Amino acid sequence: MEGLQRCFVLHSRPYSETSLILDVFSEDSGRITLLSKGARRKRSNLKGALQPFTPLFMKWSGRGSMPVLTHAEPISISLPMRSYILYSAMYVNELLARVLENDTPYPMLFLDYLNVLRELAQAENPEPALRRFELALLQHLGYGIDFLHCAGSGLPVEDSMTYNYRDQKGFIASMVVGQLSFTGNELKAIAARRFETPEQLRAAKRFTRIALKPYLGGKPLKSRELFIPRGRSTGK
């Protein structure tokens, strides 16, 4: 077991006639790009293992931009992602691939990722699990916002009061209601990562979209396009 790391494949793409380039999230090394030589050959024993949502033990060698995969074995079977839940899991993978820098360890985020996959595999509604993971990801990236106190006065937020979000500052009490406005009740739910009403869940989604935007830049997430019905646009 020496040198092996717990990993998940986030995404793979063909390279040459027989190989794959893998975006991998590992417990000890974070996000890393690997070259898997011969993985596309018909007789390759890796062909069925290097799939998203399959827990793997992996080992690689070499330095530079693309180390070479030397060993991969499944720890267990793939976590089952049915129908629309699969799109949510693909969104989580794309999110990690887009916002994490290579070779930066996030061991606690790895556990959060494992937890969100387990939640999604059992979920009827993926939204609460996605919001909890997005909030955890922001925390691991160093995004620190106080949801429980007004950034202007320092007083605890009140359930029925409206607070406007200001980048790098937090939430400030305001009578103006708009896209950046949240009630104290919604902020408490976001802080606790517990969503008991549809309004709290929608507020959490609105906040995480705002907070993640600087990390994602202007390029849209491809996985979000899967949620748009054919022939229609959601405007997102």
Automatic annotation (TrEMBL):
The entry's keywords: DNA damage, DNA recombination, DNA repair
Domain (DNA replication/recombination mediator RecO N-terminal) ranges: 5-76
One Gene Ontology CC term in the entry: bacterial nucleoid
GO BP annotation list: DNA recombination; double-strand break repair
A Pfam family reported for this protein in Swiss-Prot or TrEMBL: RecO_N
InterPro entries per record: ARFGAP/RecO, DNA_rep/recomb_RecO_N, NA-bd_OB-fold, RecO, RecO_C
Gene3D superfamilies xref list: Nucleic acid-binding proteins, Recombination protein O, C-terminal domain
Keyword DNA repair appears in the UniProt entry: yes
The protein's role, per its UniProt record: Involved in DNA repair and RecF pathway recombination.
Stated family: Belongs to the RecO family.
Protein name, as recorded: DNA repair protein RecO
Species assigned in the record: Photobacterium marinum
